[in-house]
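Page 37, continued from 36.
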């Protein structure tokens, strides 16, 4: 394990900094063997910032960087508009009633009994659908009219015919529906100006560490080629392993920052280095650039769940007479 930091100075109990720990990506086989555990592991292990038992292997590098100049987090959820008019609702109810009845019938009756139950349910649903039969017939008629008009080159739809003839439209019953969670992204920028040879080495090592750990890993070994003969070198490189993952923590001295947001494990999706931080090319005698700008973009591996805010009551509870320790994720 290697330890790098910039600036290279003592860290006290009052020093604020960003700590980035690099770990090997190791998938949790339990999620594959036992599907019932899927979605539970990430909630049970977020206290250590360790979703789904990923990255529990040995630590590769630990990198200490100064607090970024622009610290912010953004939580979001995905929603989308959805509509369901009366004809769609009736059709869905019709099919759902028959399928539900058939499911119960197959579980309790013989094939002949199940068929009778389904037939009875079909007749029942036909009667229920009678209340919208006039609307359905009207819509069908207008669709035929629109199709006929299309044969002679007219660009018209059944909805347009309904609106033009009656001034009405089918109520879309529009609603905003939850689509799913989102994965948060974070971007940091650090300006690095080495003051001596030691800091030059630290900056060079930090840049190299980020580049090496975000790169995919070739799965296989050259020894396979020796055993199976010519041409097997490609077989030994047929797979690429997931790059290493990164655990980010805002720190104050030897503890987590008592206010700022926390992170789940992240992938380093991109990085860039500007070796001419002052807009001109200038180096020291050993060829180290006098100013560099390091830009890092991370994305979390798993979403944030409501239970993540209840995981550690000792650090998440607000007390009017005490101190508030953390805003959570």
């Amino acid at each position: 394990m290697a330890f790098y930091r910039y600036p290279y100075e003592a860290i006290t109990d009052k020093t604020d900094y960003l700590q980035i720990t690099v770990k090997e990506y190791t998938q949790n086989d339990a999620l594959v063997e036992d599907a019932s555990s899927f979605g539970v592991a990430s909630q049970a292990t977020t206290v250590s910032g360790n979703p789904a038992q990923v990255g529990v292997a040995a630590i590769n590098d630990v990198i200490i960087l100064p607090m970024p100049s622009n610290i912010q987090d953004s939580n979001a959820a995905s929603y989308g508009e959805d509509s369901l008019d009366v004809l769609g609702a009736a059709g869905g109810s019709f099919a759902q009633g028959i399928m539900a009845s058939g499911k119960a019938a197959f579980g309790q009756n013989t094939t002949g009994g199940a068929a009778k139950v389904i037939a009875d349910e079909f007749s029942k649903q036909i009667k229920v659908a009678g209340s919208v039969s006039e609307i359905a017939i009207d819509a069908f008629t207008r669709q035929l009219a629109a199709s006929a008009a299309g044969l002679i080159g007219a660009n018209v739809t059944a909805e347009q015919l309904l609106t033009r003839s009656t001034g009405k439209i089918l109520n879309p019953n529009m609603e905003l529906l939850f689509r799913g969670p989102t994965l948060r992204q974070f971007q940091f920028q650090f300006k690095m100006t080495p003051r001596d040879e030691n800091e030059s080495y630290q900056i060079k090592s930090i840049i190299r560490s980020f580049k090496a750990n975000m790169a995919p890993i070739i799965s296989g070994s050259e020894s396979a080629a020796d055993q199976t003969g010519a041409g097997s070198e490609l077989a030994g490189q047929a797979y690429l392993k997931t790059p290493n993952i990164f655990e980010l923590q805002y720190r104050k001295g030897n503890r987590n920052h008592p206010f700022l947001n926390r992170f789940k494990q992240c992938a380093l999706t991109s990085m860039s280095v500007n070796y001419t931080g002052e807009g001109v090319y200038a180096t020291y005698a050993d060829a180290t650039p006098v100013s560099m700008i390091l830009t890092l973009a991370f994305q979390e591996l798993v979403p944030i769940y409501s239970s993540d805010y209840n995981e550690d009551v000792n650090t998440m509870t607000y007390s009017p007479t005490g101190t508030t320790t953390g805003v959570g994720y």
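The CA atoms of residues 261 and 303 lie 15 Å apart. Flag for discussion at group meeting. The chain has two domains: 2-79+180-316, 84-173.
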